[in-house]
Amino acid sequence: MASDRTGKKRKNKKVTVLIVLLVILAVLIAVAAFLLTRSKPEPETPLDFNREVEEEDGETAAADVPTVNQEAANAELEGLSQESGSQPTRDEGWRHYLLLGVDGETDSYTAKRSDAMVVLSVSEDEGRVVLSSVPRDTLVYIDGKNSFDKLTHAYAYGGADLTVQTFEENFDIDIENYFTVNFAAMEEIVDLIGGVTITLTDAEAKHMGEYYAAWGLSGGTQVLNGKEALAYCRVRKIDSDYKRNDRQFAVLMAIYDKVKDLSVSQYTELISTVYDHMYTDMTVAGAISLVGDLLAVTENGGIENVKLVDSEHSSTGSLGGRSVVLVDNLEDTAIRWREALGIENYEPSARLVQISEALEALK
User: Fold this and answer.
1) Residue 299 included in any domain
2) 234: in domain
């Protein structure tokens, strides 16, 4: 009976995707672009704000969480227009890239959600590489749709380009380039490198079997194969989306640790695997520059994990009966993130201030 029930659940679930690449995504893909001497931009996704976006199972909000005030939202949106000359802030000495994990089961990215979103920040001068995650359900303003919606839906409405714009406007981060991958890359890469070492709790192991058919696991430190690693990164219902982000980061670091010790032949196969599941708007010249920066930085230190949106400064709310993450204050979020990166003299853009003030009226 349990397996029958699990089978039904699996059929009803869209695969939740995660960012599968750290240096793999940022470095190896860039190397692949250089070696293959060709760009691989994402297929254009026509803007369609009437497109219905299928929600992940279990997204219904609890009855005791605050509901976003739709009347206040409509009134506030009337005065929310793009301000002339308001561009995202450029952080001197830093370059920011957006890594997107898409919930597509094939290479067709149209009308999918970006269920994992991480900002990769590199400072060659300071010798730092920082990964900053954002919960997929974060409530943001999506320009063109003229409404507040889940961040994950921006990709369904307009692909990587609209997602980049949404990040820039709501978090005031000037994005250099994007990298988009689907979930299939995770399983293939983890299997290719011989698995990843992860410490599971008993609750995680049980959930991975019941919901994602990753059977036979128990609590403790062990090597997970590709299917098991993907299941681990999808776990959310036993705690929260914030914890899911932590699991994704743990797998990324485990992949990174294994990749550092690969042979030349394994690197070649890995590059080919990654490239098959990836799109990027980065040029060959940009790839060479990024590769150089990352190799120089990662030789001298580790990868830092900084939450762009964390549980301490956000809460759970309801929008149309669906669960959303309500940031306490978008402007404060951008300031706090710069402080974590050590960026001084930051001044929020006019656009961020405008959206942040509008969001305050919705609560």
Assistant:
1) yes
2) yes
Q: Encoding tokens for residue 322? A: 């669906």
The encoded tokens of residue 333 equal 């979020």
Residue 333 lies in a domain: no
Name residues whose C-beta falls within 8 Å of residue 73's C-beta, 6 or more positions apart in sequence. Answer: 147, 148, 361, 362
Q: What range defines the domain where residue 238 resides?
A: 2-60+92-190+225-314
CA–CA distance, 14 with 53 (Å, rounded to integer): 12
> Quick check: 313 and 331 in contact, CB under 8 A?
no
CATH, residue 30: 3.40.630.190
Helix (H, G, I), strand (E, B) or coil at 219: coil
| DSSP class of 311 | G
pLDDT average, residue stretch 175-186: 82
CB 138 within 8 A of CB 242: no
Q: 326 by DSSP, 3-state: which?
A: strand
Query: Rounded to two decimals, what is the model's pTM?
Result: 0.80
The most confident of the ranges 57-61, 179-183, 238-242, 327-331 is: 327-331
The string of pLDDT tens digits covering residues 94-133 is 999 998 888 655 445 555 788 888 999 999 888 888 989 8
Angle at 51 between CA 357 and CA 57, to 5 degrees: 85
